[in-house]
Design brief:
This protein is mostly helical. It contains two helices and no strands. The protein has one domain (2-101). It has helices spanning 2-7, 9-101. The longest helix is centred in the middle third of the chain and has 93 residues, at 9-101. The mean pLDDT is 81. The chain crosses the membrane at residues 15-48, 68-95.
Length: 102
């Protein structure tokens, strides 16, 4: 009985339509999964590079700030001690000359 149904053209056409529908559903499922996977991958890389870009951007300015902070700090104290060094020697020679020759 099944062989008679399979031999008839109507049953073959319905089986072909069902197989075609199943193939279309599998292709649609494959397309949806690949697009969702690609979108998830793009989102992952977007947030990954966005996060690390801001991370290195932040540390770039962090070290930039501390570089100039210590740079000016160093030169401030350099000139500060330089000034007091000459001030001290000026007073030393001034009083030495004042008390020695007067």
């Amino acid at each position: 009985m099944t062989s008679n149904l399979l031999r008839s053209g109507e049953c073959k056409r319905e089986l072909l339509l069902l197989l075609l529908l199943l193939l279309l559903l599998l292709l649609l499922l494959l397309l949806l999964t690949t697009t969702t996977l690609l979108l998830l991958l793009l989102l992952y890389y977007y947030y990954y590079y966005y996060y690390y870009y801001n991370y290195y951007y932040y540390y770039y300015y962090y070290y930039y700030f501390y570089y100039y902070y210590y740079y000016y700090y160093y030169y401030f104290f350099y000139y500060y001690y330089y000034y007091y060094y000459y001030y001290f020697y000026f007073l030393l020679f001034y009083y030495k000359n004042y008390y020695c020759y007067n």
